Amino acid sequence: METRKLTEIAILIAVATALEAITTLMPFLRMPYGGSVSLGMLPIFIIAFRHGVKDGLIAGFIFGVINFMLGGFWIHWASIVFDYTLAFTFIGFAGIFKKTAWTNNIHFALGIFFGGFLRYVVHSIAGVIFWSDYAGDFNPYFYSFIVYNLPYMAGSILLCIIVGLLIKKRIPYSKSA
After folding, report:
1. How many Å from the N-terminal Cα to the C-terminal Cα in the chain?
2. 8 Å CB contact between 95 and 55
3. Which of 21, 43, 176, 177 has the fewest CB atoms found within 10 Å of its own CB?
């Protein structure tokens, strides 16, 4: 059973990476210094809902590392930690809704919102700490939390909720998974 779970997680991380890569082909969905409206988080949410917080956190971490390796933006080594490893890892906290996400659409959506919101907060904190020079005349908090990170993260979360709810019935699950 462990081999099956690892294989499933690896495949879903690959799907997440492919969805993220497709977004890079559409410049109108990308922000200038990183971040984009993307479905890339959805497979990580599926992992978290199927296997729980721990596996969701590990999958999110791996997804973040792969994202960085495939073209990450960074200004300081610690910005890599915040924007890639921590932010993407936190998507896995959606797994707290594991027991009810498959049977309750509201919990499914709340799990996606929760994991996506945590990622947004980490990106925004990184923006204040590391990217504030790019804020221009804006207050760095306003720029990072509202102007830069909110549009693409809200779009990604909303897109993941909509598509996730549309495909949810086709995703196999079991109470023991």
Report:
1. 9
2. yes
3. 176
